[in-house]
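Risk register update: the risk of archive-format incompatibility is retired. Evidence:
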Amino acid sequence: MVKMVRYSLRALMLTCCLLTGVTMKLLASSPAEGVPPAPAFSVISLDGKTVGSTNLTGTTYIINFFASWCPPCRSEIPDMVTLQNRFGRKGFTFIGVAVNETEPAIREFIKKNKITYPVVMANEQIVNAFSRYVDGGIRAIPTSFVVNSSGRITQVITGARSQEVFEKMIVDALRKQKTKK
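Archived output:
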């Protein structure tokens, strides 16, 4: 009896492992299926330009919710500026969304950190639009959403990332963008 129970448990565990492996393989080989579309949004950046899903069509972007008083946010900003300068003319951009900030404080932060990508002040529309992709909404910063050139969210990232990690995401997304053309 004990042998039969052990055998049954082993068979069940093996089946679960196999099913998990097959599921992961299927998901990895067809990433476009089940990848949610980025929400529609339109906001005015602090330099007066419209930034929105419509004018970003065909562009790969990372939308980054941040605050100037947040140490992890401040640590990744210089890397994001470097990557924006490197990949900005290749069909990529960062978009900064400043949360819990005053406009004068963010303008000073942009100037001090030489931010070259669009920065917008968080409003209810953009926060609500992206919050639905995070369990419980956007509660931690930095939180970033990687959106491919087809307008689909491919990754949601909570917490700061290194330049190397961001660069790999950007290069992979741009490579996929080129192969689709």
